[in-house]
TrEMBL record:
<keyword id="KW-0314">Glutamate biosynthesis</keyword>
<dbReference type="InterPro" id="IPR006005">
    <property type="entry name" value="Glut_synth_ssu1"/>
</dbReference>
<protein>
    <submittedName>
        <fullName>Glutamate synthase subunit beta</fullName>
    </submittedName>
</protein>
<dbReference type="InterPro" id="IPR023753">
    <property type="entry name" value="FAD/NAD-binding_dom"/>
</dbReference>
<keyword id="KW-0560">Oxidoreductase</keyword>
<dbReference type="InterPro" id="IPR051394">
    <property type="entry name" value="Glutamate_Synthase"/>
</dbReference>
<keyword id="KW-0028">Amino-acid biosynthesis</keyword>
<dbReference type="Pfam" id="PF07992">
    <property type="entry name" value="Pyr_redox_2"/>
</dbReference>
<feature type="domain" description="Dihydroprymidine dehydrogenase">
    <location>
        <begin position="26"/>
        <end position="131"/>
    </location>
</feature>
<feature type="domain" description="FAD/NAD(P)-binding">
    <location>
        <begin position="146"/>
        <end position="456"/>
    </location>
</feature>
<comment type="pathway">
    <text>Amino-acid biosynthesis.</text>
</comment>
<dbReference type="InterPro" id="IPR009051">
    <property type="entry name" value="Helical_ferredxn"/>
</dbReference>
<dbReference type="InterPro" id="IPR028261">
    <property type="entry name" value="DPD_II"/>
</dbReference>
<dbReference type="Pfam" id="PF14691">
    <property type="entry name" value="Fer4_20"/>
</dbReference>
<dbReference type="InterPro" id="IPR036188">
    <property type="entry name" value="FAD/NAD-bd_sf"/>
</dbReference>
Length: 486
């Protein structure tokens, strides 16, 4: 156990963020660099090393949290890093981006603020990179088997790293021009600087994983041919079909899917454009959708110099406290103030968009909305509450409905989909096509990075067993696990 009295003598302290007026002028991560290290040992010391550590169950990866808290308390960063990597290929991604269901499940959280698990995680991994503890781990011998991974998001990368280390020859096919999936082009630089992806890719390359960018399987490369060329295939193509808003005026110029808008801002940071082809500069911006994707649009619009930013959500505003029907240790749906929300803008709850209004040139100018109430499973409009707000750039951030159905991948492999439009799989993450596996949002539906990594690791074990008859790779989750978490 770290510090037997740590939870009694120290309160919860989290990473400090840079002042708003400073950080909205740049795209760097919002945290004060180096602010965690001086406090993290005491914070890790708040861990009680519970007999039944509920944090394990809260985390889809089954992270060995009390073990690395103990190492972090003792400032044994090397030991902590070894324990961290035992269950997570990419703690620098989850340590920055995860909503931390482990903290919602932390036993300390029953009657006082939970252990800052996520901050401890990111400190351990940043220190490990800094001290050179993260090194390539190439396999000792090759199996002679080949695997193609389709998609380079967190699920594809985790599967590829596990399979490469198990001795298989792995090639990752990615239709975008850079590796990383939503980590690269969805999540803005101010939430995670892309250098963190780049150095992992270098590590993976040094271990032997091959990367092929600019190849869309189904469109540029026939899926059946790929199947013949490789002994197994992992589909980690994400859930990229965005939900639309088919209301009058949707066709006006200036209304974009969030995933049309966010990648362009990320491409400016990569040096592809001087200015983004779609920009919020000087415009009244409306973001439709109150989730993570919406918050990323809000933060991006602030940095581009929007005149105003309004985020709309159809659901009512959640409570600030854990609601009674979502008791500890479940992940509660509470009111959250993300770094993007700290930076300004207005959030409007329980409203629905009725239509858009444009000018004579076909550019959107206003969004018409109405207040709604959720009754008997449907949203009822409240008469007399209609109003319009200025909207010169609108981003739709209303979620995703499943794998891309337009590039032919599903048909060419002959994949069966489940009732929710995701690729169906068995307990080993194998699809209806023998030797073809699925991991991440493509099989689970729109989810989280931590689930994608857990699925990639579990699918890798399924592939390894399929290729060799046995596997020593871990499988943190099953394909239908939802656990206590989001
Ligand atoms: C804007 C945004 C912000 C988010 N923020 C967070 C967050 O803060 N924290 C969090 O936990 N989760 C967040 N999420 C969710 C998280 O990013 C996803 O759950 C996660 O990335 C899913 O990983 P994946 O590997 O399954 O798929 P993806 O990351 O979607 O990667 C799939 C990859 O497959 C490629 N691909 C698709 N089809 C083909 C094909 N036919 N051939 C070749 N390549 C193909 C795509 O180009 C893509 O690169 C966010 C999502 C969005 C959209
Ligand atoms: S539940 Fe919280 S206090 Fe208990 S072991 Fe996990 S992190 Fe430590």
């Amino acid at each position: 156990m770290a510090d037997p009295k740590g939870f009694l003598t120290h309160g919860r302290e989290v990473a400090r963020t840079r002042p708003v007026d400073e950080r909205v002028k740049d795209w760097k991560e919002v945290y004060v660099p180096g602010s965690l290290l001086p406090i993290i040992s005491k914070q890790a010391g708040r861990c009680m090393d519970c007999g039944i550590p509920f944090c394990h169950n809260g985390c889809p990866l089954g992270n060995l949290i009390p073990e690395w808290n103990d190492y972090a308390y003792r400032e044994d960063w090397s030991g902590a890093s070894e324990r961290l990597h035992a269950t997570n290929n990419f703690p620098e991604f989850t340590g920055r981006l995860c909503p931390a269901p482990c903290e919602a499940a932390c036993v300390l959280g029953i009657n006082q603020p939970a252990v800052t698990i996520k901050n401890v995680e990111v400190t351990i991994i940043d220190k490990a990179w800094e001290t050179g503890d993260v090194t390539p781990q190439p396999p000792e011998r090759l199996s002679g088997k080949t695997v193609a991974v389709i998609g380079s998001g967190p699920a594809g990368l985790a599967a590829a790293q596990q399979l490469t280390r198990a001795g298989h020859t792995v090639a990752v096919y990615e239709r975008a021009d850079r590796i990383g999936g939503l980590l690269r082009y969805g999540i803005p630089e101010f939430k995670m600087e892309k250098r963190h992806i780049n150095r992992r890719i270098e590590q993976m390359r040094a271990e032997g994983t091959k990367f092929r960018t600019g190849v869309e399987v189904g469109r540029d490369l026939d899926a059946a041919k790929l199947r013949k060329r490789y002994d197994a295939v992992v589909i980690a193509a994400g859930s990229t079909t965005a939900r639309d808003l088919p209301v009058p005026g949707r066709e006006l110029t200036g209304i974009h899917q969030a995933m049309e808008y966010l990648p362009l801002a990320n491409k400016v940071q990569e040096g592809d454009f001087v200015a983004p082809p779609i920009s919020a500069e000087g415009k009244h911006v409306v973001v439709i959708g109150g989730g993570d994707t919406g918050a990323d649009c809000v933060g991006t619009a602030h940095r581009q110099g929007a005149a105003s930013v309004t985020q709309l959500e159809i659901m009512p505003r959640p409570s600030e406290e854990r609601p009674g029907h979502q008791p500890w240790p479940t992940f509660p749906m509470t009111y959250k103030v993300t770094s993007a929300h700290e930076e300004g803008g207005e959030r409007v709850y329980a409203v629905s968009t009725t239509h858009f209004e444009g000018d004579e040139d076909g550019n959107v100018q206003f969004l018409h909305l109405v207040e709604v109430e959720f009754k008997d499973g449907t949203f009822e409009q409240k008469p007399g509450t209609e109003r319009k707000i200025p909207a010169q750039l609108v981003t739709l951030a209303m979620g995703f409905t499943g794998i891309d159905r337009e590039n032919g991948l599903v048909e060419q492999f002959g994949l069966e989909l489940d009732a929710r439009g995701n690729v169906a799989r068995d307990a080993e993450f194998q699809t209806n096509v023998p030797g073809v596996f699925v991991a991440g949002d493509a099989g689970r539906g729109q989810s989280l990075i931590v689930w994608a990594i857990a699925e990639g690791r579990s699918a890798a074990r399924g592939v390894d067993r399929h290729l060799t008859g046995a596997s020593s790779l871990p499988a943190p989750i099953g394909p239908t696990d939802r656990a206590l978490t989001v």
